[in-house]
Amino acid sequence: MAKVKRDIIALKCTECNSKNYTEFKTKNIKEKLELKKYCFKCKKHTVHKETKVK
C-alpha cells in the first residue's frame, strides 16, 4: 500500500480573516481550496480560502 503525500492547510474566512479550520490536502492538487464553512466569529456561513499554517 502506497503512502499518500499530504500537507496541512488552514482555512481562513474571507470576511473577518480569522483562521477557523485545518484540513489535509494531497500534494497533486494545484489550485487552492475554497469551501463554504461556518465562521464562529461572524456567526454565519462564509467562504473560507486556503492559507499556510505557521
Fraction of residues in helix = under 10%
In CATH, the homologous superfamily goes by the name Ribosomal protein L33
Give the strand content. Answer: over 45%
Instruction: Tell me which CATH architecture applies here.
Output: Single Sheet
Q: Give me the count of strands.
A: 4
Spans with pLDDT under 50 lasting ≥5 residues?
none
Assembly type of the shown chains?
single chain
Task: Decide which structural class fits the backbone.
Answer: mainly beta
CATH class: Mainly Beta
Strands of the widest sheet, in order across it, are 2-1-4-3
Give the integer mean of the pLDDT values: 92
Per the principal axes of the C-alpha atoms, what is the gross shape? elongated
Our measurement of the CA-to-CA distance between the termini, rounded to an integer number of angstroms, reads: 31 Å
CATH topology title: Rubrerythrin, domain 2
Number of domains: 1
Please summarize what this structure is.
The protein has 54 residues and is mainly β.
Explained architecture:
- The chain has strands at about 5-15, 20-25, 35-40, 45-50.
- A four-stranded antiparallel beta sheet has the order 2-1-4-3, with no helix packed on it.
- The chain has about 55 residues and is mainly beta.
- The protein is built from no helices and four strands.
- It is about 0% helix and about 55% strand.
- The model has no long low-confidence stretch (mean pLDDT about 90).
